[in-house]
Amino acid sequence: MSITLPDTMTAILVDEPGSPEVMKLGKVSLPVPTAGEVLVRVQASGVNRPDIMQRKGLYPPPPDASPLLGLEIAGEVVAHGPALDGVTLPPIGTKVCALANGGGYADYCAAPAVQCLPWPKGYDAIRAAALPETFFTVWSNLFTTAHLKKGESVLIHGGAGGIGTTAIQIARAMGAVPLATAGDAEKCALCEKLGAVAINYRTDDFVEKVREHTDGKGVNVILDIMGGPYFERNLKTLAVDGRLVIIALQGGAKATEVGLARIMTRRLHITGTTLRPRSTAYKADVARELHEYVWPLLDEGRLTPVIHATFPLEEVMEAHRMMEDGTHSGKIILVHS
Predict the structure, then answer these.
(1) C-alpha to C-alpha distance for 297 and 121, rounded to whole angstroms
(2) HSE-up of 75 (CA within 13 Å, CB side)?
(3) With a threshold of 0.90, does the pTM exceed it?
(4) How many whole angstroms separate alpha carbon 27 and alpha carbon 211?
(5) For residue 268, which of 337, 318, 221, 328 has the smallest C-alpha distance?
(6) End-to-end Cα, the chain, rounded Å
(7) What is the pLDDT along the chain (337 residues), one digit of tens a residue?
(8) CA-to-CA distance for 220 and 155, rounded, in angstroms?
(9) Pairing of the two strands 116-118 and 153-156
(10) Pairing of the two strands 116-118 and 95-99
(11) Cβ(191)–Cβ(180) under 8 Å?
């Protein structure tokens, strides 16, 4: 099967770092898929906080990645790169969603085939585009890094966001007990609807609330997006042998107080991760585990992405403003024409 492709495409361009206004529609050359990659005609793409940071000049893409914004896409495979040993390329015409290494805010995007997954049953492009970045991130951190087990408890900061709503659902589906922080009653209600014990961090001390809900033991795992300001309180919230995984620094990168004695006496494990610089082989392993353990739950409707809003690609500035305002719950999706 052969598809005639254009030489150029429409993409969101950023000439210099700055506010949402620096983004504009423009024309660029069509990407050429390299060995083991596929070219996807993008129908929808997700907006994520790393996109915001890259737009501001604070999160440069890896040297071999597309300089264009966009880390998750859904669409149709339209071309293949050269074959690569051990890599199966999805046939032309296959509907896939993919964790891209960049370039998702465009008509076409090249992505490693091993980072592509099929659309779950009954999904359209919008719902499929809401999956890759958050599901890869959550699975990688909760299960590959923190080794969250059935019956353990996990505190998820930012429970109403894209990462948070995904983490609550997957943790619960895997038999863990999720608790989540959120900033208002409506967001707390969403966390509870998804199956978490909700804690309003604006009105309650999450350390005290976690102790109440765990009979004073603390949680086994914390998935943290805040960083410095939460560090000491996170340590106080962990159970013996607890694991803290820091995946973002929305509150700042510096902790003013660190309880080293608590780390030693309670045998705490502290780590931080970023997914984008990880190897294709690592991401391929995550994709295989997602396909085995999580995709059947999506097919059955037992898990579903929470989508807050959709915007046409040309309204990307509004989508970024919404992400930065922090008023959204769940995912923000760009719809491509």
Answers:
(1) 10
(2) 28
(3) yes
(4) 55
(5) 221
(6) 23
(7) 668 999 999 999 999 999 999 999 999 999 999 999 999 999 999 999 999 999 999 999 988 899 999 999 999 999 999 999 999 999 999 999 999 999 999 999 999 999 999 999 999 999 999 999 999 999 999 999 999 999 999 999 999 999 999 999 999 999 999 999 999 999 999 999 999 999 999 999 999 999 999 999 999 999 999 988 999 999 999 999 999 999 998 888 788 778 889 999 999 999 999 999 999 999 999 999 999 999 999 999 999 999 999 999 999 999 999 999 988 999 999 999 8
(8) 8
(9) unpaired
(10) antiparallel
(11) yes
* Residues listed for the chain: 337
The set of residues, in sequence order, having a beta carbon less than 8 Å from that of 186 and lying 6+ positions away, is: 329
d(CA 222, CA 244) in angstroms, rounded, equals 5
Q: Give residue 165's identity as a one-letter amino acid code.
A: T
Tokens representing 121 are 């049953």
Q: How far apart are CA 170 and CA 100, in angstroms?
A: 22
Written in H, E and C, the secondary structure of the chain is CCCCCCCEEEEEEECCCCCHHHEEEEEEECCCCCCCEEEEEEEEEEECHHHHHHHCCCCCCCCCCCCCCCCEEEEEEEEECCCCCCCCCCCCCCEEEEECCCCCCECEEEEEHHHEEECCCCCCHHHHHCCHHHHHHHHHHHHHHCCCCCCCEEEECCCCEHHHHHHHHHHHHCCCEEEEEECCHHHHHHHHHHCCEEEECCCCCHHHHHHHHCCCCCEEEEEECCEHHHHHHHHHHEEEEEEEEECCCCCECCCCCCCHHHHHHCCCEEEECCCCCCCHHHHHHHHHHHHHHHHHHHHCCCCCCCEEEEEEHHHHHHHHHHHHHCCCCEEEEEECC
Instruction: List the structure tokens of 204.
Output: 């309650």
